[in-house]
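anyone seen this seq b4? input:
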Amino acid sequence: MTCYFIIYNVKLGQCIGVLPKDQPNYAMMVDCGHDDDFHPIDDFGAHLPKSSSQQPKPLLGSLVITNYDHDHFSGLPNLHRSAQIKSVLFPKNLSMEEIRGLKSDSTEALDTLEHIRNTYTADVIDWKPPFTRKVFSLNQAELMRAGIPIETNHLSQIVFVKYGETTFCIPGDMENRSWELMLFKDKVQDWLMQTDILIAPHHGRYNGYHEGIFDFCQPSCVIFSDKEIVHDTQKNMTNLYAGHVRGNGITYVETTGNTVERKTLTTRKDGHILVTVPLVGPPAFTAHR
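predicted toks r here
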């Protein structure tokens, strides 16, 4: 048994596909950012079961959104049109009115988000995927008590996904100040201790980095979903995170077939990244072609 994790290259954005090979009806997407004319569902959907409608669509078992910034759900209109989404798990710490109040413009993605929030209201029953999923987030009261502004980044969901012996931590756009609060939570500490693969918070930007994460987490690899380096907050971050990776990191198979040892992987350099996770044993890291 195997589960595939695909970190798609959507430049400044995020989209991660989780595909249990033998139970594709439980396939999950964490965020649905897109890049120009590339929508990850166009690749991911080819591996999903199809609906029985007159015009069959890929069946996506679950969609999780970590953050209410557009780069985490910009592809939602296309995803909603082209696939049948069976269940959603969105952060519950902002109302739709509050989300719109934090955004300067109304967009099709925001309208689609509101439609989904208004229609996906029933409890999910009999959903027993072969992986374990846990989410944690702060609420507005916690931020206000700490003097932290009410912003979408600070209200990100941290998503942990465990399959077999491998655990991913996908922390959305968490920033240093919100990490300060999150790291006091015992259950978050417990899941960080299990984490093998860390998706760099806030696309690896400096304000998403908190050294205290690594009091609990010694990952085998840190993966960045980000665009080309154009801001100072992006510079030297791969080296900073690499210093927290255990041992020599992981073995990565590049698109050329070359095998290299790496402590960090980035979509800006490596493109789409495939992590193949067996039920027993360590994962394999390759370029996703």
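The chain has nine helices and 17 strands. The longest helix spans residues 108-119. kinda curious what u guys think
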